[in-house]
Each structure stands twice: as C-alpha cells, then as structure tokens.
Amino acid sequence: MIMDDISDLLKKLDGLGVKVGTSQLPDHQVEVKLPAIEDLIQGEYESTQFGEIFIATTRYTFPYNHGEQPLIPTESLINISRWAKFRDEDEPDINTTLFLDTETSGLAGGTGTFAFMIGLGWFEQSSFVVRQLFMRDPSEEQALLAVLARITKNYSCVVTYNGKSFDIPLLRSRHIQNHFPFEMGEWKHIDLLHLVRQVWKYSQESRTLKDMEVNILGYQRSQEEVPGWLVPQLYFEYLQSRDPQPLVGVFYHNAIDIVSLAALFCTTSQMLESPFQPFRISSSGADYIGLARVFEKISMSEIAARLYAKGIENGLPDELEMPALLRYAELCKRNGYYADAIHLWAKAASLGNIDACVELAKYYEHQASDLQMAYTYTVKAISYLPKNKIYSTRKQESNLNNRLNRLLKKINHVIKLGDSEDVAR
C-alpha cells in the first residue's frame, strides 16, 4: 500500500515537472587549471624586496631585417642630437640609449592610470634585446619599479614615440605615488614622433608608429597583433579571469612597438647623417623637403638648400612646389647666392607669386640698381592681386603702390639728371 502511494506521488511530481533522484543531477564540473604566464611567454621571474616581477626576453640577432630595413645601430647621433637641442658634449651613445614603450590601464592618462607592462629595448653586442616587465597584479607595482631601476641604471638617453606627452609623465607620476626616485626623468629624451612628423610631413598622411612600420619600414604585423585601444580591456579581463592567453597578443604588440621604434630611429638618424645617400626606402621629392626643414631648424642652411633643390628636382605636388621654391630662394639669398635666388624667384613669379615679384623688385632696385626691372616686377605683383579685397590684400596693395610711386620718382629723377647732362654738354 505504501509503495502504491509513493508511486502515485512520483507520478504527480513528474507531472509538475519536478525531477527527483540523483540521475537528474548535473555532472560534477571539473575545475580547469589555467596556464601561468610563463607557460605561454618565454621569460623568468626576478625577486625584489617588494615581491616578484615577470620579465619576458626576446633577442633579435644580427643580421636582422625589420621589414625591408636592416636593424643596424647608428654610429653617429650628431644631427639627431642637434635636432633634440642637446649640447654638443651631450651627444648620446647608441650603447647607452634605451627604447621604451608602456602598456597601460588606460589611454587617457590621469592619476588612476598605471603601466602594467614596460617594454625596454637596447643594442647589445650583435643583437637587439627586448625585455618586457609585466605585473600580474597592480599590487606588484613597487616590484616593477624596482626592476626598472635596476635594468636602466647604466643608461642615459631614452627614445620614445609620443613619450614626452604620455609614457614619461605617467612613469614619473607612478614613481612619485610609490615614493620612488625617478632617475629617467633626468635623462636625455628623444621623442621620435616629433621628428617623424617633420621628416615625413608632406608624404605620409598618417605618422602613427604602426603606419610608419608599413609605409617606411615595410613591416607587416602577424595575426598575433591586438590593436592598442583593446590592450587595457584585455588586461582587466585577465585580472578577473586570471587566464593569460589573451595577453600573448599584448606581449607581441609591445615587443613589435619597441623593435619598430628602434628600426625607425636608426633609419631616421642615418638619413640625418647622410641626407644625400641613397636609402632603401623610396624617398620622394616631398621627403627631401621635410628633411630640408629639419636641417633649417638645426642651422645647417647650406645642406637645407641642397635638399630643397633635390626635392624640386624630384618633382613636388602643386601645393608644395611654391613654398619649396620660396624657401630655397630665401636660403640662397641668406648664403649670398643671388644668381640662384633670382632664378628661383623668377620661376615663382612666372607662376603668379606676389612675394617672388617683390623680392625681385627689391633685388633690382637695391642690389642691381636696375630701376626699370624693379618697376616691371612691381607692376607684375600688382597685376597678381586678387579682385576680392580683404584687409591683408588692401594692405599689400597699398605697400605695392607705395613702392611703385617711389620707383617712378626715382626713374623720373634719373631721366631729369640725364636731360640736364645733355643740356650741359
């Protein structure tokens, strides 16, 4: 009787959808053991008084080509030092120069942002070494900074890409918050982004490190690459899950940033040391103009003039041709090469440039004492004035008319003197 009651109860429970018995319980889930970071990335731990830090090491043995460019340490850094406004006696040595890039918890900076990975690169005998300091948890930050201080103690110059605005201020902030001295803040610093913007200003629309890799170094990243904007998210996901597998792409991203930074630095510094030497990269006329502007900034005007000539000779886009002609002419004038300057101004004047006409008028009036030619170029300049008058145009027109009137007076005076001499004879 009891068994019948139990059977009826089970049928009712089953009708209500209630499952009973151990056969309906889910299988016991086996805990999956996640790999450690050292299982995926080649590296080792370094112990400090603050704890351990994981350091990944990659060595690029020479000869090594990063894309189409060989990674060769630069022997001389004289001109890049001048560009960076170092004193002559402070020219850095490539052997004490460090290449740095950080991966951070945020891209906007701020007091809450920290560097969870610091990538360092340097030339060492017959190779280029990349070391990446990685903290598995924000609590390891002091250990990270201690290892950074040990590795960098023998260096005196740092090269970054936008590091003056981001990496170095961030590291300084983290050192201050952790009561650590920041020796790197006293080093010589070359922010390559600013130099790249000047050299390739006219030929490259984008001058991000990744675009320069492709367009200048000829390097293509592999499928391991993760975009920079995704890096903070991947790190925070790792902190939650403790699964380091997505971080493999972050280590790759940071390592290639360091190698590309070094390769681009060496390529650019070699261009500054030997600007007329053929390079493996295809330098356009616009690149020579960019180089010329750099040499102007470091007060090497004769080389700058030759680079302007090279750029014009190689052909320039329309919007760049006129500024290049005028800058080249100005340098020729400054260095006393008036014949060259006149030729360039004449070409610019034939293309409708008012400033070139004015320069020619000045030359013929004050240097060549040819008032008629000065008058001719002043009239030509006035003819090039736009029809729609704005304040600047009205002022320019007024100046030109004043010049014309003065020249007319001079010409009439010369004519009168000539007539008087004829009467006297």
Pick out its properties:
425 residues; alpha+beta; seven-stranded mixed beta sheet; two-stranded antiparallel ribbon; 9 strands
Could you characterize what this model shows?
There is one protein chain. The chain is of the alpha+beta class. 52% of the residues lie in helices and 13% in strands. The protein has 16 helices and nine strands. It has helices at 2-15, 37-40, 78-83, 141-152, 167-177, 192-199, 209-217, 231-241, 247-273, 285-297, 301-314, 318-334, 338-350, 354-367, 371-383, 391-424; strands at 43-48, 51-61, 65-66, 69-70, 97-104, 115-124, 127-134, 157-160, 188-191. The strands form two sheets. A seven-stranded mixed beta sheet has the order 1-2-7-6-5-8-9, sandwiched between helices. Strands 3-4 form a two-stranded antiparallel ribbon. The chain starts with a helix and ends with a helix. The relative contact order is 0.08. The mean pLDDT is 88.
Number of strands: 9
Q: What helical percentage do the residues reach?
A: 40-55%
What structural category characterises the helix and strand content?
alpha+beta
- Molecular shape: elongated
Q: Provide the residue-averaged pLDDT.
A: 88
- Uncertain regions spanning at least 5 consecutive residues: none
Terminus-to-terminus distance: 160 Å
Strand order of the largest sheet: 1-2-7-6-5-8-9
Helical segment count: 16
How would a textbook summarize the main sheet? 7 strands, mixed
How large is the share of residues in beta strands?
5-15%
Output the radius of gyration. Answer: 34 Å
Order of helices and strands: HHEEEEHEEEHEHEHHHHHHHHHHH
